UniProtKB/TrEMBL annotation, chain A:
Gene this chain is encoded by: napG
SUPFAM superfamilies, per the entry: 4Fe-4S ferredoxins (SSF54862)
Residue ranges of every copy of the 4Fe-4S ferredoxin-type domain listed in the record: 57-87, 183-214
Lineage: Bacteria, Pseudomonadati, Pseudomonadota, Gammaproteobacteria, Alteromonadales
Family matches, as CDD domains: DMSOR_beta_like
Listed name of the protein: Ferredoxin-type protein NapG
InterPro entries with a match to the protein in the record: 4Fe4S_Fe-S-bd, 4Fe4S_Fe_S_CS, MauM_NapG, RnfB_subfamily, TAT_signal, TAT_signal_bac_arc
Automatic annotation (TrEMBL), chain B:
NCBIfam families tied to this protein: napH (TIGR02163), PRK09477.1 (NF007013)
Name the UniProt record assigns to this protein: Quinol dehydrogenase ferredoxin subunit NapH
Record-linked Pfam families: Fer4_10, Fer4_5
Top-level lineage group: Bacteria
Native source species: Shewanella eurypsychrophilus
InterPro entries with a match to the protein in the record: 4Fe4S_Fe-S-bd, 4Fe4S_Fe_S_CS, Electron_Trans/Redox, NapH_MauN
Keyword terms, alphabetized: 4Fe-4S, Electron transport, Iron, Iron-sulfur, Membrane, Metal-binding, Repeat, Transmembrane, Transmembrane helix, Transport
TM ranges: 33-53, 86-108, 142-163, 169-190
Gene designation per UniProt: napH
Domain 4Fe-4S ferredoxin-type: 220-250, 252-281
């Protein structure tokens, strides 16, 4: 009885000064706490390079502001492609991602994952799955890729939903045997959707072709660099002086 | 020591003798049933492909059409500057209106999974006879709520969702994301050893927001029979927000109007004198003015 009573009386009997002091203390504590959580958040907002976001995902920072981590996209995916990230998973906890090598995206025509997303972190303007940019496939290891050894593996090429567009085989003379041809898989980064089917099927123990998030896979010219298309440059243009 | 911590096996014994064990735990059981049914509705989706309720507490879809979303998560998203799809906002409005009508913190005691964790910590505290402590001000949760809503403006990230323990249990069970469970263990230990009812009673910003939402709700617990109170203090022992009880028991107005009340109904259960009852504020007003 006494305990309850006394704690009550201190609660009701706070004077102005105590109240201000208490507020200041609480304010400081909250400030520190806020900084703490923010630094946790900032640190774990680094996405693992092999974790790929679902189709239509906004740029990583916009995605992190928008996604409420409801898992509706995960439940909508008929192929169990998507997972919600756990703590220490290399993607912000609770956000959806997939690992192409384990289960790639099957590029559903009606894109159920995007339709299910209530927050718009998966952009509902994406209606053609072939336009999606989950990542970019990169033939990352030319040494071990069987086609680079002069064999006709072609598995990644044949599995690609956008065969001969997102991925092509480039015939090249085989210097080693000198009378064979090599067929080198080449990804066209403008068409590749990043579905990861190529990485999934690569016959090697470690895939030689890997899907990477676009910000890692793609180079970018600096804004002050000007690219000159030499084939279309005429003498007249040169005489006029090129707009550099 | 006070009478409170001396009662060992005597707790709520009067109510049990008077009403029988079952009725003295009625709302506790109904509450657990409600918490578990919500969870089961979510879980039978992935388990048996019976999709009555998809998603989790952050946002979900009822019967494939009705969107339901957590108002706090939705507010955070909007404050980052991202304009969400209308579905999310509609879902948050539906939830907000629902709890404004039935009582804000009804969410806490009838739906939220963390409640089971903190209730068990409190139960164990009682069993182990640990002293009652409450050094933290209850207003902390509103400060925390303010921080939770401020950080998205400053950082552009829904920072709180990284550590929010409320959806963690659901994510752990529904999406096998168990590595976040350490947060719930931390809350359990905090409530058990460091400060009584620390999480739900003093810190949780979700509870704070729901308390604000439920300010005007017509449904309240009311000390209809306050005269019969024999000061056994059992309701003070079980109530997660015991500061709300005294004004109702001793004051002029029998209604528990403080929106901190989670409307769990444990005070109704444990009172042998049947002091408390759920009441509809509007109906009660009509009665009084007659
Ligand atoms: S497009 Fe289909 S397979 Fe790919 S993530 Fe979405 S639902 Fe899954
Ligand atoms: S459905 Fe949208 S908001 Fe929900 S987890 Fe997926 S991406 Fe995030
Ligand atoms: S990720 Fe691979 S399979 Fe998918 S579109 Fe790109 S090249 Fe094709
Ligand atoms: S206070 Fe927070 S954690 Fe506790 S029951 Fe309410 S919403 Fe859940
Ligand atoms: S007053 Fe009663 S209903 Fe409200 S929180 Fe306390 S025990 Fe629960």
């Amino acid at each position: 009885m006494s305990k309850v009573e006394s704690s009550k009386s201190t609660v009701t009997g706070v004077n102005r000064r105590q109240f201000l002091a208490q507020s200041a203390k609480a304010g400081c504590a909250m400030g520190l706490l806020g900084m703490g959580i923010t630094s946790v958040a900032k640190q774990s907002s680094q996405l693992d390079p092999l974790a790929i976001r679902p189709p239509g995902a906004l740029s990583e920072s916009d995605f992190l502001s928008a996604c409420v981590r409801c898992g509706l996209c995960v439940e909508a995916c008929p192929y169990d492609t998507l997972k919600l990230a756990r703590w220490f998973d290399g993607a912000a906890t609770g956000t959806p991602y997939f690992t192409a090598r384990t289960i790639p995206c099957e590029m559903c025509e009606d894109i159920p994952c995007v339709k299910a997303c209530p927050s718009g972190s998966l952009d509902h303007d994406l209606t053609d799955i072939d336009e999606s940019k989950m990542g970019i496939a990169v033939l990352i290891d030319e040494k071990n890729c069987l086609n680079f050894k002069g064999l006709r593996c072609d598995v990644c090429y044949r599995v690609c939903p956008l065969i001969d567009d997102a991925i092509t085989l480039e015939m090249q003379h085989n210097q080693r045997s000198d009378h064979h041809a090599m067929f080198l898989p080449k990804v066209n980064s403008d068409s590749c959707t990043g579905c990861g089917k190529c990485e999934h099927v690569c016959v090697l123990e470690q895939a030689a072709i890997k899907v990477l998030p676009a910000h890692i896979a793609l180079g970018k010219t600096a804004s002050h660099d000007t690219y000159i298309n030499t084939e279309e440059t005429t003498l007249e243009m040169l005489n006029r002086g090129l707009p550099l | 020591m006070s009478k409170l911590s001396m009662k060992k096996d005597g707790f709520a014994q009067a109510a049990i003798d008077e009403l029988g064990w079952w009725r003295a735990h009625k709302f506790l059981f109904l509450r657990r049933a409600s918490q578990l049914s919500v969870f089961i509705l979510f879980a039978i989706g992935p388990l048996f492909s019976l999709w009555l309720l998809k998603g989790n507490l952050s946002s979900s879809e009822l019967l494939g059409i009705v969107p339901l979303s957590d108002p706090l998560a939705t507010l955070q998203v909007i404050l980052t500057g991202h304009m969400p799809e209308f579905t999310l906002i509609l879902g948050a409005l539906i939830i907000a209106i629902f709890y404004a009508l039935v009582g804000g913190r009804v969410f806490c005691s009838w739906v939220c999974p963390v409640n089971m964790v903190t209730d068990s910590a409190s139960w164990l505290r009682r069993k182990l006879n640990l002293p009652r402590t409450s050094e933290m001000p209850r207003s902390l949760r509103y400060y925390l709520l303010a921080v939770v809503l401020l950080l998205p403006i400053l950082t552009g990230l829904t920072v709180w969702e990284w550590v929010n323990p409320v959806p963690v249990l659901y994510r752990a069970a529904l999406f096998s994301a168990g590595s976040g469970l350490w947060l719930l263990v931390a809350i359990f230990l905090l409530d058990l050893f460091i400060s009584e009812r620390a999480w739900c009673g003093h810190l949780c910003p979700t509870g704070a927001l729901f308390a604000l939402l439920g300010k005007l709700s017509p449904v309240k617990v009311s000390a209809v029979n306050a005269k019969a109170c024999d000061n056994c203090m059992d309701c003070f022992v079980v109530c997660p927000e015991r500061q709300v009880l005294k004004p109702a028991l001793k004051g002029k107005q029998a209604m528990i109007t403080n929106s901190d009340c989670t409307q769990c109904g444990r005070c109704i259960d444990v009172c042998a004198q049947r002091v408390f009852q759920y009441k509809n504020r509007i109906a009660l007003k009509a009665e009084n003015t007659q």
